[in-house]
Every structure is written in structure tokens, then in C-alpha cells.
Amino acid sequence: MGDLLAPANTIEVLLGNEAVARGALEAGLNVAAAYPGTPSTEIGEALAKVAKRVGIYFEWSANEKVATEVAMGAAWSGLKALTMMKHVGFNVASDAIFTLAYAGVTGAMVIVSADDPHAHSSQNEQDNRHYSESVGLPMLEPSNPQEAKDFTKEAFELSSRYRIPVMVRTTTRISHQRGPVRLGEIKAGFSKGKFVPPEPDRYLQVGAIARKHHAELLGKLKEISLDVAPSYTKVEGASDAEFGVITSGVAYAHAKEALKLVNVDAKILKLGMTFPLPKKSIGEFLSSVNTALIVEELDPYLEMRVKVIAKDYAPEVEILGKLTGHMPRVGEYTMRTVLEGLSKALGVAPPVNFAEIDRRSSEILKKVPPRPPVLCPACPHRSTGYALRRAAGRAAFMGDIGCYALLFQKPFRVEHVTHAMGSSIGLANGIDVATDQDVVALIGDSTFFHAGIPALINAVHNKRKMTVVIMDNRITAMTGHQPHPGTEVNAVGDEAPAIDIEKIVRSIGVDYVKVVDPYDHAATEKAIREALKHDGVSVVITKRECALLTVAKLRRQGQKIVPYRVNPDKCTYCRVCINTFACPAFVDTGSLVEIDPTVCFGCGACVPVCPYGAFEPQEGSLNWREQKIGV
Amino acid sequence: MSVREFNVIVAGVGGQGILFTTNVIARAALKLGLNFAQSEVHGLSQRYGSIRTELRIGSDVSSPLILEGTLDLLIALEPLEGLRQSPYISERTTVVMNNHVIPPVGAYLERFPIPSFDEILELMRSLNPKKIMVLNAYDIAKKAGDYIVANTVMLGAAQATGVLPFPEGVLREALEEVSPSRYRDLNLRAFDLGRESVSPPR
């Protein structure tokens, strides 16, 4: 919503991620590359939208490692480069990043890691502050959208000054926090750089050269810890208070308000740079209090390091946090988490009667049916899941990362595994080696390009017997519809060569390959049955674009979305539709099934599901399969 | 103008326009130069599941998350999702609730009973909010031209409660600014109808 290019010195509403993008533009960004991943995606989306207008280069890359290398290439050619990824995306990129710290850059490079405490949209709660320390790259942690912009801009300045990449770590509540941001001048643009290694061995990391560069890196980090980290610390509150809180990121925002609510004299040490730490600033803060509570999400990263610093500066000070059981280690922090921890540390009752709130609301919540995310109405994955259940119900199903991970739910239950990008096919290799079971790997188009191809090559070469279902919905859907190497346009909307998944699969040597429209349930089922019988690696590509894209296109064309209806004379209330297809538009009235017209997209995919033909179009309804809409 | 703390939750089912609704309120806050922090949901968790955005307006605000029991305005685009916010609802809460229940399809498979709207309203009343306003936002939206603007109808109704810390007119102007051009007139019509059609306070 925010105008990323609003003029300097105005205040604009920006999402934390948009603020990161704006900060990069203000720093003079030239090149950015990323693979989408929640909660980092909107940084790239924001840059993609303005790339042509401000003259920067932006691409959605095949995966995070490639994105990092694209940015590195630019930063080694004297340009200012940015790459951003979700916390687990960093794992993919890390092979390149570890050695990059030794190599450094000639231009500037910023790496944004967007962590997801609470695993809102992720498979784990990995804490990437550890990466910063083990890679050896400085890390800035903003605590609101304004700082997200400012710190990103400053990260580029630091990177130029010290000739090493700088990390910016956000978490979901920063990335997806919208707030007022005061803007500075945009300086971004693109001009060609030149790849000239500053010394002949600068980019040749091996043996003695690597050791030399390692020592050099440690020297830079020491300098940064003394000269830069202290300027990112802020002490607030009553200077004579004996109780202190050490915190950073969004936890600071919670702690600041929580301290006001408990109404106790206290002070806060806020850290903006969490690696390398400002040892002296922390030491002096510790010497000024009797007790310090560490308020940080996920791992006791600060807590453990603060304890080490306390040994030198204030061995008597009591340090409380996760290790002492005052703060939780699992899940994200909320105002409540912080208030409870703080009250426990201070030995006072929380200022809010949480027990009473829990008592009152738990009675009510017991009566509210859970509503986990489900596949959208008209989602092609629902049809693929339906066919898989019928055709391959007893197989071992290796799932992957994408919306289709929701097929683990009833009534489909065709995902026994959701693990890491591309793992479906790799795991299917292993399960086939180890068992006599039928094995099915389910993977999306974008995930296939990201990390699925090597595992498929591996399967063919090692003569595995397995079926791979590539659910090609023509876009990176889960993160909000970013193009990928298989789409006809690139990140900035230009025409691009679309890499053909079927051709890749055939070129690898898979000899059973079928492409079907998943809405054609009979054909999809038949293909899956044949594939399972095939002696070797078989691939079924279920190809139909994400329904949200189809609906958006139809609406843009001025086409009215007319829902389907249930003919009450034909519905026998057998509930086969709910029990096998479970479209969120289905409503069970207790005597009939109906379609909720506010939810139905009018696709017609449910029509073949009813044994009595009760699903009917209304005047103006489309039939996406027959009319070839979305394929 | 000065506001110390005003907390809003917009709750509903992914796809109902929850984020847009909240963005309009945030834009109004920006127009008035107020401080605010808004938390929203993106990614997988937004796919037809429970969604809520939290918006906190005021000079005392630094956390983007609302403390239990301190909600001032609940806009429930779907009533079950409104009820799901019960830990946040207290005597200081004004509730604006759409009466159209969207049953979670998973509940049928788990044989979880789905309360009727009347039962939902009764449970909501048991939380003693300051005020509850109920409207049939989809019907009103259809009158405005398309059921997809039910969220804007709810926004108009929220304005009509008078609890928002904005002078008359600012929210409507914010809506005009934030609306994509092809939905602008439709949205404004829906907003006005929503404002006029609030059922009387209980």
C-alpha cells in the first residue's frame, strides 16, 4: 500500500519489508536478487515494482544460493547489492555466505535474514543470530519499520566502509509490521561496474589464503565491535534503577511498554547491533544494576554472551532469562509473554489478571471450531489431492514446501512429510531404497526449480522406482505469486524464456511422463495409477494455474464470478463432497449441502465429485475445465 | 489531536479483505499524524484460515501486538473469527460484527459442532463488551454492487459507532486514497451504506 518512492522528508506508511527496500534505495542500491520466502517476500516485491522506475536490477532467482551469488557478483564488481531470504533460506545460501565473509566485497553488500519466531509460515524456529557470529558478518536488528529503513541504509554504509557484507535480521513482527516511516533521499540506479579483484588472491579461498583472510576478518570484527556497535546501543529509563532489561528487535518494543505497565523503576539497554556485541556498553550497564532480565525471542543468544561479559565487568549481577526459566524459548513473544516474565523477575503480580482472562475466554474458545489454513476454493491442488487419495491411497507420500503442504489435512492426507525445499524427491529416493512401498513425491513448480532437479537426476541415475507429482500452478503461489524460471515473465514484468518442466524431466531420462489438467479428475487418476505401475521413475505433471490468479484475471477482464449451486432435489445429503473434496465453500445445513456464494469462485471443479450430479452452474457460471480457463 | 492508545483488531477468514480494511484505518491515522503499529499476516497462514490484523494507534504505543483485555474496537468480518478474539475483548471493547457465518470445512470432518449466529452473539454478549453492533454486511455489499466489498461496509459501520479516534470524514478520505481506482466508487458506496445501516445498539 505504501508508496515506496514517496519524496524525502515525508512520512509514509510502510511495511517493515517495504522499509528495508526503501532503505536500500536510499543507500544507492544497484542490484538485488532473492528467492521469495515468508516473512521476507515483500522486500523483493517492493523492489520488483519500482525497479524500472529507479533503474535498479532486480531478479527473483532460482534459489537463495543463486540469489546470493548474483548479489556477490555485483558486489565484487564494485556495485551495491542486496539479497534477502527467510531464515531457512539462509541455510541454502550459507555455503556461499560462509566463505564470502573471508572474501569481502569491493562494492557493498547487505544480506537480510527474515526469521520467523512462532513458525507462522515456516517449518522451524531457527534463530539466525547464530549465523552472524559463526559466519563472521556484522548484524543489525531493527525494532520497528523506521529502524528497518534506517538500519538497512546504514548497513550499506558499514559494508562499504569495512569491505564486508553486513547482515540485517528482522523477525516476522518487524517484517510484517506496518507503521509510519520518515523517508530520506533515494539514490539508487544502475551503471556497469568492473570485476577487478583488489588483490590477486582476494577471491581464492583455500588453505593459507583462507587462513590469512580469516585473520583479517576477525580484525575487522574487533574494530566494528569497538567503533560501531556502541553507537547502536541505547539506554532508557531511570538512570538510578537497580533493575535492568537487555533487549533487541521487536522484543524491545514489547519490553518498553511492559515496563510502563508494571510501574517499577527500571532501565533498558537496547542493542541495535547483535554481532559483534558492544562489550563495554553491556559491561557498564551490568555494573549499574543488581539484576538484569534478558528479553529476546528464540535462543538465549544474548543471555549467554551477556553472562560471559558479566564475568569481566559485574560478576555479582543477577542475570535472568531463558536459562533461569523466566522467559520462554519456544514461540514468539507477545506483550503477555514479556509482562509475565518481567513480573516473575520482579517478584510482583502481573498488572493484568491473565488467569481471569483465560478462565473467561477458554470456555468460549472451546465452542469455536478451529480454522487452520486450507486450500483455497478452486485450488488445483485440491483436485490433485483428491485424485491421489483415490489412485494412490496406500503410498508413502513425501511432501514439500508450498501451499500443497496443506494436503496433509483430512480428507486428503497425501502428505506424510513436509521438510525442506526439494526434500520430497530426495526423501523418496531414500524411502524407495529402504522399503518395498509405493513412494510418491509431491512438489510444486517453483520448488522443483529451487531444489528438486538434482534429486530427480539422482533418482534416474540410481534406478529408483518412484512417482513424482509436479504440481505446476505456473507461479510461486504460497508467497503471493512471484514469477519463477518456468513463467513467461520475469520479476519486473518483462517477457522471459519459460523453462519447460516437461522437457527437463524428459531430458533427465524419465520414461513415463504425463501432463494433465488436475480438474480432469478421471485423467489425473488414470495417470497416477499408470505412473505407480511404471517400473522406474515416473512423473505426472498436474498443470493448472493458481486459482487466485485465474480469479484475479477474470475480475480484471470484467467477468463476473458466478458461484455454483446445489440442486436440493438432487442432493441426497450423502456428504461425499465434504468427506472427499472439502472445498471451503461447502456448507452442511444438517439436511443438505449448500454452496456459500461468498466463498465459491465458480470454477466447477466439484461437479464430477457428486455421485448424484447435484452441483449445478447458475446463469453466468463458467466451467473452467471445459472452457479451458486457467490452463 | 492526541490519542494515547487505541487498539483495533480486524478478524475474519483469509480472503475477506482483512488487510485492506486495516490499511484504511492506518491510513487515517497517518493523515492525522498519529503514531501507530500494525501487525499483519502474510504467506501460507493467510489461506482461508483464521486471520486477524492488529492495529495500535497512539503516542504510548511501541509494541505491534495487543495485550489481552485491552481491545477497543473489534471488526469481525466473520462472527466465529470475532469470537476467537475473546481473550482481547473486555468492557472497553466495541464489537462490529457481520452476521454471515462461514463454517470451517474442517469442522465437518472433525465433527466439531458449529454454533449458530444467535449462539455466537450470546457468547459474545457474555464477554460484556461496551457495545455490539451486528449487520448483514454481504446483503448491504450486494446493494452497493458486489459482495466483495462487505469489508468496506463493515468499515462504514465501525465509523458509525463513533469510537474511532478520528474526526468525521477522515476514514472515508483514507478509503478513497487507499482504494484501487476501479473499486473506488464501489468502496465508497459500500462505506456509506454500512455507516447508515448499523442496527441499533442493544
Strand-helix topology:
The complex is a heterodimer of chains A (631) and B (202).
Chain A: E1 11-15, H1 16-26, E2 31-34, H2 41-54, E3 57-60, H3 64-75, E4 80-86, H4 87-103, E5 108-115, H5 129-136, E6 139-140, H6 145-162, E7 166-171, H7 172-175, E8 177-182, H8 207-227, E9 233-237, E10 243-248, H9 249-262, E11 267-271, E12 273-275, H10 279-287, E13 291-295, H11 301-313, E14 318-320, H12 335-346, H13 354-365, H14 380-392, E15 396-398, H15 423-434, E16 439-444, H16 445-461, E17 466-472, H17 501-508, E18 512-516, H18 521-533, E19 537-543, H19 547-556, E20 565-566, H20 576-580, E21 586-588, E22 593-595, E23 615-616
Parallel strand pairs in A: 2-3, 2-4, 4-5, 5-7, 6-7, 10-11, 10-13, 13-14, 15-16, 16-17, 17-19, 18-19
Antiparallel strand pairs in A: 1-8, 6-12, 9-11, 20-23, 21-22
Chain B: E1 6-13, H1 18-31, E2 36-39, E3 50-57, E4 73-76, H2 79-83, E5 94-98, H3 105-109, H4 117-126, E6 131-135, H5 137-144, H6 150-161, H7 170-178, H8 184-196
Parallel strand pairs in B: 1-4, 4-5, 5-6
Antiparallel strand pairs in B: 1-3, 2-3
Helix pairs in contact in B: 1-7, 5-6, 5-8, 6-8
